[in-house]
Structure formats: structure tokens, C-alpha cells
Write a structure and sequence with these properties.
Layout lengths: L5 H10 L6 H23 L8 E5 L5 E3 H14 L5 E6 L6 E2 L9 E9 L10 E9 L13 H4 L8 E7 L3 E6 L5 E6 L4 E6 L10 E3 L10 H12 L10 E2 L5 H11 L2 E4 L10 E2 H14 L3 E3 L16 E2 L1 E4 L1 H13 L1
Parallel strand pairs: 3-5, 11-12, 11-13
Antiparallel strand pairs: 1-2, 3-4, 5-6, 6-7, 7-8, 8-9, 9-10, 13-17, 14-16, 15-17
Helix pairs in contact: 1-2, 2-3, 5-8
This protein binds 2,5-anhydro-1,6-di-O-phosphono-D-glucitol (AHG) and manganese (II) ion (2 copies).
One manganese (II) ion binds next to β5.
Length: about 325
């Protein structure tokens, strides 16, 4: 079998398909390189002093882990000098990060969740990185200027690329630039990502759901109805048994769904009134990746990629995965 590296995959999308330009190719390669560095750090674990808290809180008031801070620094350092970005935004930074004045600016905006699944770091369960790329709107003078939050607030349908890495038994990178969803596995000896899962397709039907069941008493009625029907199994309304998985790292739960189908939900509830996950750097990139693999993603009422964001760190309800199940949950919301 021919080994197709990430570099070759991207060159072909630039040269043969003209789907991306050289700046976007550099951007994706740079993010992938940063993910390799994060993967190395994650792999050192306690021996490298990687575990535990950083002793600080992020903008959402969540205690930061050392790896949250380190991963954020790695992504910033890797991306700010390339001349292809107008600004960056991260879960770990309240405001957009400007490009330092001694570097040139480019046409793209990069958003990321540097370390997804932070509660799994110290317990040696898979974690990851999620990223999303938008174009920066230009001002009247034809330049990108100094982009602030406003420039980032574009619906997910405007993304030009999205991806995520999972640091698990293997390190994988999943990517879309709008022509399908493709998976790469890190060859650790060579240090390169190899295309191992081309054109991923999610089965339209599934008998596996992922949700944090400890929140059940707090859910909205349509979500309760859907899960109760799954739990009722063969003799219930659905007439089949369902299995459940919940890794508590969205990257791993989504990767499983890309591999064998399933439905993932983090609904609104009495505690997380707007939802728990973040629209701009968790829900939107995953929605783009899932749709490109034939799945669907909604907040219950609206297709995720059609939602107009109102804040950089806005939270949202997420239902994603196998199309027919996601549509069923949306129907239950519409009927309620
Ligand atoms: P992060 O570590 O970036 O804050 O995100 C964690 C998210 C997501 O990955 C996961 O699906 C969810 O939080 C888990 O939430 P619970 O702990 O409520 O299960
Ligand atoms: Mn996250
Ligand atoms: Mn995170």
C-alpha cells in the first residue's frame, strides 16, 4: 500500500483539486506539527511532570491543568509567526490573541480547544485537541486589520477547515477541508501523519448512544424521552437494544462515532442552561467533520453549522452522529 503522508494529501488538495491555498496548507501542517508536540508531552505523563493542575483558572472559571496551559502555548508558538493568520482564539484565553507586530498577518482565523477532555489527563484516558479555521473579514481598506471577537463570530458553515487529534493508544488526526472527512495515524518513528482512514462514512443508523447519564434528572423532556426509549430496549418503542459509551473526552466519543456510528449528546440541562460544550471551538468543528462524513449535528432546534454565534466562548447543546438518530432527537424537540 502506498503511504500517503499528510503533506502529500494537502499538496494534492492544493495543486490538483484547488480546494486550499498554500497559506491554508501551511496552517494545517503547522497545527498538525503542534499536535505532535502535544502528543509527545502527553506521552511523558508523570515522568515528565505533565500531570496535575496549573494553579490557575481559565475565562470560564474552570481550573486549568498543566497540559491545558502547555498545549495552548505550543499551539500559539507554532502558529503566530507563519504569516498566514490574522488572529487566534482559544478556550484558554478570554480574548482573541493578536499576531505579534513583528510578524506578518494573513487571511485566516484559527480557533482551538488545545486540550479536550482535561478531566481524563490524570487518569490516563484519551484526550485531544480540536481546531477550526475561518477566513478573516477584510476592512474597507482591504486589509484584515486587528481582528477582535466580532470577526470570529461567523456561523460554522463558513469554516474552511476543521480537525481534531486524539492522544490515545495511537495518536490520530481527523481532518476536513470540505471534501470528506479523512483520518491519519501518527507514525511515531517517522514523525509523520499517514492517511489510514480515507473518506470516513458514519452509518446512518446506530444502536449506541453517548451521554452523561448522571445529568438525567436535569434534562429537557425530548432528551429524556429519547434516552428512555433507548433504555427500554427490544420490548420498548424502539424495538431494539441499545449500548452506551461515555469517555468524557468529546474527541474520543466523536472518533468512536466516526469509526462505527453512534449518537453523542451534551444537552442543555438545569445546571448548564445553555449547554456545556463551546460552539466556536468544540461544536462547530465537530459538526463540520461529522457532516462531511455523512452524519448530522444540531442543537436540538437548528443545524449546528447554521447558528449565528453571539460570543467567542458561547456554550451550546450538542446532538451529533448517525443521521437518522440525530433527526429523531430533532423531531422530539420539534414535537415538544
Ligand atoms: P474540556 O476538557 O476542553 O473542558 O472539555 C471537556 C468536555 C468534553 O470533552 C466532554 O465531552 C465533556 O466536557 C465531559 O463533560 P462531563 O465531565 O460533564 O461528562
Ligand atoms: Mn473541550
Ligand atoms: Mn479544553
Amino acid at each position: 500500500m502506498k503511504r500517503i503522508t499528510l503533506t502529500r494529501f494537502l499538496i494534492e488538495r492544493q495543486r490538483d483539486k484547488q480546494l486550499i491555498n498554500a497559506d491554508l496548507r501551511l496552517l494545517i501542517e503547522t497545527v498538525a506539527r503542534a499536535c505532535k508536540a502535544i502528543s509527545n508531552a502527553v506521552g511523558k505523563g508523570a515522568v515528565g511532570g505533565m500531570l496535575g493542575g496549573a494553579g490557575t483558572d481559565n475565562v470560564q472559571g474552570e481550573a486549568q491543568k498543566k497540559l491545558d496551559v502547555l498545549s495552548n502555548d505550543i499551539l500559539l508558538d507554532a502558529n503566530e509567526w507563519g504569516g498566514n493568520l490574522a488572529a487566534l482564539a482559544s478556550e484558554e484565553m478570554e480574548d482573541p490573541h493578536p499576531i505579534p507586530t513583528h510578524f506578518p498577518k494573513g487571511e485566516y482565523l484559527l480557533l482551538f480547544d488545545p486540550l479536550d477532555g482535561s478531566s481524563n489527563i490524570d487518569v490516563n484516558v484519551s484526550i485531544g485537541t480540536i481546531f477550526s479555521v475561518l477566513r478573516c473579514p477584510k476592512g474597507a481598506d482591504g486589509t484584515v486589520g486587528d481582528p477582535g471577537e466580532k470577526e470570529f463570530l461567523q456561523p460554522g458553515s463558513k469554516q474552511v477547515a476543521a480537525g481534531f487529534a486524539v492522544y490515545g493508544p495511537t495518536t490520530v488526526l481527523v481532518l476536513t477541508v470540505g471534501d470528506g472527512t479523512h483520518g491519519f495515524t501518527l507514525d511515531r518513528e517517522m514523525g509523520s501523519f499517514i492517511l489510514t482512514h480515507p473518506d470516513i462514512r458514519i452509518p446512518e443508523d446506530t444502536a449506541e448512544f453517548a451521554i452523561n447519564m448522571s445529568n438525567m434528572r436535569r434534562w429537557e423532556t425530548p432528551v429524556k424521552r429519547y434516552i428512555e426509549e433507548c433504555l427500554a430496549g427490544k420490548t420498548g418503542a424502539r424495538g431494539k437494544d441499545f449500548n452506551m459509551r461515555w469517555v468524557a473526552s468529546m474527541v474520543s466519543d466523536v472518533y468512536r462515532i466516526l469509526t462505527r456510528g453512534g449518537i453523542f449528546m451534551y444537552p442543555r440541562d438545569d445546571k448548564n442552561k445553555a449547554g456545556r460544550l463551546r460552539l466556536m471551538y468544540e461544536a462547530n468543528p465537530m459538526a463540520f467533520i461529522i457532516e462531511q462524513a455523512g452524519g448530522a449535528c444540531t442543537d436540538g432546534a437548528t443545524r449546528m453549522l447554521d447558528i449565528q454565534p453571539t460570543g467567542l466562548h458561547q456554550r451550546i447543546a450538542v446532538v451529533l452522529g448517525s443521521k437518522n438518530e440525530v433527526e429523531r432527537v430533532a423531531q422530539y424537540h420539534a414535537q415538544a
